[in-house]
Specification:
There is one protein chain. The protein has 105 residues and is of the alpha+beta class. A hairpin with a 5-residue loop joins strand 1 and strand 2. The longest helix is centred in the N-terminal third of the chain and has 7 residues. It is globular and about 30 Å long. Bound molecules: FE2/S2 (inorganic) cluster (FES). FE2/S2 (inorganic) cluster (FES) binds next to loops. This is 2Fe-2S iron-sulfur cluster binding domain-containing protein. It comes from Alteraurantiacibacter buctensis.
Length: 105
């Protein structure tokens, strides 16, 4: 499915993500800036913090305990904050828009 990342400056990048991979992996594979993923997807660094389009937020499984705990410490957390490494890409996410925080470039 196509997923669009928009950075804090408004620059949009659409990527072809594959079902079963994480949103973070899809971003890294397509050189999306602002998703450093320092911990490699272990839910430990929060450098994959994104804001999920509210339309799609309800389509995602709720964050697990580890993700929720980490999200409490991220800079500029919002109700639609998620960690991209904890989101599994599925066909349902086709057309989803996620934004990266201004603190991540
Ligand atoms: Fe580190 Fe997601 S890649 S928490």
């Amino acid at each position: 499915p196509t997923i669009t990342f928009i950075d804090a400056q408004g620059a949009a990048r659409s990527v072809q993500a594959e079902c079963g991979q994480s949103l973070m992996t899809a971003a890294r594979a397509n050189d999306v800036p602002g998703i450093d993923a320092d911990c490699g997807g272990m839910c430990a660094c929060a450098t994959c913090h994104v804001y999920v389009d509210t339309e799609f937020l309800s389509q995602l499984p709720a964050p697990g305990d580890g993700e929720e705990a980490l999200l409490e410490f991220v800079d500029k957390a919002q109700p639609n904050s998620r960690l991209a490494c904890q989101i599994c890409v599925t066909e349902v996410l086709k057309g989803m828009i996620v934004r990266t925080p201004s603190s991540q470039r």
